[in-house]
Amino acid sequence: MSPSLAEIFRREGDLASYRRAVVALGGDFPFGSADMIELGAVYFERYPDRTQGRDAAEVRLGYALARVALIEKTVLAVDPARRDAYRTVLDDVVKVGPTLEALLASCGRAALQADHRALAAALTALKAAIDDIPKGLIKERFVGGISNLFNIMYVIDMKLRGPLL
Amino acid sequence: MSDKKRVLIIDDDPAICESVKAILDASGFDSAYALSGKEGLEAFRKTNPDIVLCDMMMEDIDAGGQVTKIMKTERPGTPVFLLSTIGDATASTVGLAEFGFSGVFQKPVNFDLLLAVIGRYAKAK
Q1: Each residue of A17-61: pLDDT tens digit?
Q2: CA distance readout (Å), A39 to A7, A64, B66, B88
Q3: Of A33, A45, A49, which Cα lies nearest the Cα of A9?
Q4: Contacts B12 to A, Cβ<8 Å
Q5: pTM of the entire predicted model
Q6: Do residue B23 and residue A155 have CB atoms under 8 angstroms apart?
Q7: Mutate which of B31, B62, B107 to disrupt the A interface (most A C-beta within 10 Å)?
Q8: H/E segment holding residue B105
Q9: Can you tell me the mean pLDDT for A2-17?
Q10: pLDDT at residue A71, as a whole number
Q11: DSSP state of A94
């Protein structure tokens, strides 16, 4: 059985190690609302939040931890041959243009449009799990985490619909 | 000089700032961002944006609200919208009117709606 994300984060010292360990699971890890809450609890154990003078780097780490897991679950919706490309795109909006151009050349617009629909559906399902987290700071990190992925999906859609590709 | 309307994004998450900027710039706006309430206020004073999109929880839990109060005092005609991770129910209790926000967009943001709303404000300016 795969270790939980909370166990991985407890074991790994930094974001890069956590990301490597999570990516190595190929999306095979439990990730319901309870698992998100458990990961959030371990994160806040290590980095307690404050109402004033919050540490920006610690807050951003919270969003990043959520995003790594959300991306791994989301890319399961597309052909394994294209998962790395979508990992790259969902991790950095600047990579959307060049990565989509390369994908377009290799598999065509219709496949990319189908990918977009599949990725959007996967993200919507993950958002439903986040909606089940009780109101509070753990939920805030996950909402912040997934929001950027929806933003990037909007950029992808603009590019697929527009003359940019 | 460009006649594009200038939008200032204030959010402590650089990834969110970059993706919102990508969407706004591709939609005909000229956007810039700041990564804290303090930086945002400096950018607001320096660049005099037409529209501001501002997060709430940054260096302080209500940094967005405090900065918005100041911006609305200095330039009451500039619309400031809250980009919020708090739910609708909470949003209605945090004193949006007291801080002076022109409106609130919940994250994940519905960009069709946001672009339509700020487009109307941009035309009116």
Answers
A1: 999 999 999 999 999 999 999 999 999 999 998 777 888 999 999
A2: 8, 12, 31, 25
A3: A45
A4: 56, 59-60
A5: 0.94
A6: yes
A7: B107
A8: strand B103-106
A9: 92
A10: 98
A11: G
Q: Tens of pLDDT along A68-108?
A: 999 999 999 999 999 999 999 999 999 999 999 999 999 99
At A51 the pLDDT is 76
Residue A52: CB atoms within 10 A of its CB come to 9
Distance from the Cα of residue B88 to its chain's centroid: 17
- DSSP E strands, chain A: none
Give strand pairing partners of B52: B8, B80
Closest CA to B24 of B125, B122, B124: B122
Identify all chain A residues contacting B15, using CB atoms and an 8 Å cutoff.
63, 67, 92-93, 148
Which chain A residues touch B16 with a CB distance below 8 Å? Answer: 144, 147-148, 151
Which of A59, A96, A88, A54 is closest to A71 using CA atoms? Answer: A88
Q: Within an 8 Å CB–CB cutoff, is residue B91 touching chain A?
A: no
What stretches of B10-62 show up as alpha helix (H) in DSSP?
A: 14-26, 37-47
Letter for the amino acid at B108? Answer: P
CA distance B104 to A20: 37
- This model of the complex carries an ipTM of 0.94
